[in-house]
Amino acid sequence: MPTRYLDPKVGLVFKRVFGEHEHLLRSFLNALLPLPDDGQIESLEYLTPEQVPELPGLYKNSIVDVKCKDQRGRTFIVEMQMLWSTSFEQRILFSASQAYVKQLHAGHSYASLQPVYALALTSQVFDRETAEYYHHYQIVRQHEPRRVLEGLEFVFIELPKFTPQSRTDKRMLVKWLRFMSEVGESPAKGVDADASWREDPDIAQALELVEAAAFTEQELEAYHIQIDKARIELTVLEDAEAKGKAEGLAEGEALGIAKGKAEGEALGIAKGKAEEKAEIVRTMHANGLGVAQISQFTGLTGQQVLDILGADAPR
Questions:
Q1: Per residue in 298-311, pLDDT tens?
Q2: I want to staple 154 with a disulfide (CB 3.0 to 4.6 A). Which of 137, 179, 224, 243 is the partner?
Q3: Nearest 5°: CA angle at 95, between 282 and 48?
């Protein structure tokens, strides 16, 4: 009988592997972050992610925060998240910015601030305009991109786009992304039959850690609950997005008849995005979230949220 593996993308499993085994996380980060050969992580320290906002009613992202020290003696913070939906950019910006500014305590200078890397792996495609799965963002000068404003860097990885055939990717990057993409899928993936999975001791240990037999009945129950919550969040967001786009495009097409096709399409797209966000606000409110929580999630101001809710707004 083939071994049953749990999905490492699910919070409980994700933290079992990377939140409890420092050497595995170090290998993972060295493979996935855009670090120079002489700037690999040598040691790390787990941090408490106090700056991450809680969103009741929605699936809690898998978050691991660490302070790292590299071969050059440089220290920096990495906030790593596993995400299940495409609606995440504002959450990542918020939590990474909080991780940066909350380092500064009274009496300390700005020079004491350490850089922050935000590493997000998503189980959904969010950028359909490119086949690239690895996205590295920095704050750069607009007309001179080589001039980088140090402090915040973002790495987004779209797991559905990843294929292990690339010859240009680092060996361990491919191995870890295969682990995140394929383990926990159907037995047809052939993890047990493929000896290459156990060529690297870190990957071999990670596989042992995600075996279903290594979890208690209570942990397995929590695992399935987390999967259900992730699916609910994804369904809510997809339904809101589809409804918003349909309503906006319909109105845009009607306006296009009178004002010209090009203008109508432009208005339809803009209206669609606005309706999409409004539907997300209404859905989140219906699920019991408050104005402040909705504002954090969507990037809207509190007043904008109240305007959308209208008569349904809390008094």
A1: 778 888 888 888 86
A2: 137
A3: 120
